[in-house]
């Protein structure tokens, strides 16, 4: 077996230095909305055994033979509705890059090297870990951009980073930032985003629906702490804004496949509201650090249509923190805390 990053110029490799890199990682993104790029992206994503916990032989047959014959077209059409045409990339990639750039600016000279990667698609975690090493970083802080821990998101980022280390002769020292479901800066940023979104409305919404990405119920029963993590976020957000469980209900979106996922399902919950006299709502998605297909299209387009179709009159979608100063201050705080002792 040969390892990457061997010495190349005949000189002795330097001893470990103290330069630090920070790698922000979010979920992923297709390179384009065309069939083959969508297929490549979905294939990588849905072949991850952290994401789909089924017998891989059966699942691969179903995925490669049936699901990936139709889904790339369908998903490509949805991505086209939200695509950043100016940069020719998905919003998730645009926001993740912007978060890294603004964090770099905020930290200033002499600070850690800030980079970003995607778990699926490009730039890959392995590519950016090697780039950090080339930049002289023998210490790396991995920062999965998921406020709440779950195995199909956080754990698989860690897996990919460890797989990259597995190939290296000279491995950096690695730290992993913890999830931040009720980090005071996250909650303060979310609360402010609610106030900002509601301020221009003639009348306040009757409910603020909190929609987290869903997860198969089986994963939670098998030990995934995701629900408890979501509870931490919503409990802190309700307290910050003075809402209760009725005025700020918790729901789960993006069900995929036929098995039961966490309930209540956002679409069913929201579609039932007008019949109960609730016709003005706001929706917030604090499971996402950046707007993406799940927030911009599934909530901003599909859910809005379903709510209006059911008789809803006004639905305000509250944006994710994206690259706002609240997001950057949160990341700065996490980085400062997690790098302590390394300076
Ligand atoms: C099939 C199983 C899936 C699980 C389990 C899952 C968990 C999960 N995902 C996120 C965050 C994101 N998911 C996104 C897109 C997306 N998710 C799935 C499936 C599962 N997710 C699919 C098939 C897709 C692609 C969209 C589509 O084709 O319909 C995204 C957005 C990516 C982007 O915009 O580029 C995010 C972010 C979390 C937080 C989570 C578990 C808690
Ligand atoms: Fe997902
Ligand atoms: Fe979705």
From TrEMBL:
<dbReference type="GO" id="GO:0005737">
    <property type="term" value="C:cytoplasm"/>
</dbReference>
<keyword id="KW-0479">Metal-binding</keyword>
<dbReference type="GO" id="GO:0006783">
    <property type="term" value="P:heme biosynthetic process"/>
</dbReference>
<dbReference type="InterPro" id="IPR001015">
    <property type="entry name" value="Ferrochelatase"/>
</dbReference>
<feature type="binding site">
    <location>
        <position position="294"/>
    </location>
    <ligand>
        <name>Fe(2+)</name>
    </ligand>
</feature>
<keyword id="KW-0456">Lyase</keyword>
<dbReference type="GO" id="GO:0046872">
    <property type="term" value="F:metal ion binding"/>
</dbReference>
<feature type="binding site">
    <location>
        <position position="213"/>
    </location>
    <ligand>
        <name>Fe(2+)</name>
    </ligand>
</feature>
<comment type="function">
    <text>Catalyzes the ferrous insertion into protoporphyrin IX.</text>
</comment>
<keyword id="KW-0408">Iron</keyword>
<keyword id="KW-0350">Heme biosynthesis</keyword>
<comment type="pathway">
    <text>Porphyrin-containing compound metabolism; protoheme biosynthesis; protoheme from protoporphyrin-IX: step 1/1.</text>
</comment>
<protein>
    <recommendedName>
        <fullName>Ferrochelatase</fullName>
        <ecNumber>4.98.1.1</ecNumber>
    </recommendedName>
</protein>
<dbReference type="InterPro" id="IPR033659">
    <property type="entry name" value="Ferrochelatase_N"/>
</dbReference>
<comment type="similarity">
    <text>Belongs to the ferrochelatase family.</text>
</comment>
<dbReference type="InterPro" id="IPR033644">
    <property type="entry name" value="Ferrochelatase_C"/>
</dbReference>
<dbReference type="InterPro" id="IPR019772">
    <property type="entry name" value="Ferrochelatase_AS"/>
</dbReference>
<keyword id="KW-0627">Porphyrin biosynthesis</keyword>
<dbReference type="Pfam" id="PF00762">
    <property type="entry name" value="Ferrochelatase"/>
</dbReference>
<keyword id="KW-0963">Cytoplasm</keyword>
<dbReference type="GO" id="GO:0004325">
    <property type="term" value="F:ferrochelatase activity"/>
</dbReference>
């Amino acid at each position: 077996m040969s390892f990457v990053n061997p010495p190349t110029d005949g000189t002795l490799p330097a001893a470990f230095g103290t330069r630090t890199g920070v790698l922000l990682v979010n979920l992923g993104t297709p390179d384009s909305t065309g069939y083959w790029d969508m297929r490549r992206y979905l294939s990588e994503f849905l072949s991850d055994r952290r994401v789909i916990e089924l017998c891989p032989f059966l699942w691969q047959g179903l995925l490669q033979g049936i699901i990936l014959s139709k889904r790339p077209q369908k998903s490509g059409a949805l991505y086209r509705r939200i695509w950043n045409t100016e940069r020719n990339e998905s919003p998730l990639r645009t926001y993740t890059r912007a978060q890294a750039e603004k964090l770099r600016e905020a930290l200033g000279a002499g600070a850690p090297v800030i980079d970003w990667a995607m778990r699926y698609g490009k730039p890959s975690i392995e590519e950016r870990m090697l780039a950090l090493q080339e930049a002289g970083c023998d210490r790396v802080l991995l920062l999965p951009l998921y406020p709440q821990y779950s195995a199909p998101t956080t754990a698989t980022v860690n897996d990919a980073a460890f797989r990259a280390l597995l190939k290296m002769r000279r491995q950096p020292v690695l730290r992993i930032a913890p999830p931040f479901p009720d980090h005071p800066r996250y909650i303060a940023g979310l609360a402010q985003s609610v106030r900002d979104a509601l301020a221009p409305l003639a009348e306040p919404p009757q409910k603020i629906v909190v929609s987290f990405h869903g997860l198969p119920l089986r994963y939670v029963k098998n030990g995934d702490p995701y629900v408890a993590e979501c509870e931490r976020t919503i409990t802190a957000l309700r307290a910050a804004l003075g809402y209760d469980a009725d005025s700020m209900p918790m729901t789960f979106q993006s069900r995929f496949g036929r098995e039961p996922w966490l309930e209540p399902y956002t679409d069913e919950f929201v579609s039932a509201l007008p019949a109960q006299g609730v016709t003005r709502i706001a929706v917030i998605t604090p499971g996402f650090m950046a707007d993406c297909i799940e927030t911009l299209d599934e909530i901003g387009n599909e859910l809005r249509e379903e709510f209006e179709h059911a008789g809803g009159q006004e639905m305000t979608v509250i944006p994710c923190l994206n690259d706002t100063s609240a997001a950057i201050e949160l990341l700065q705080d996490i980085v400062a805390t997690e790098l302590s002792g390394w300076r």
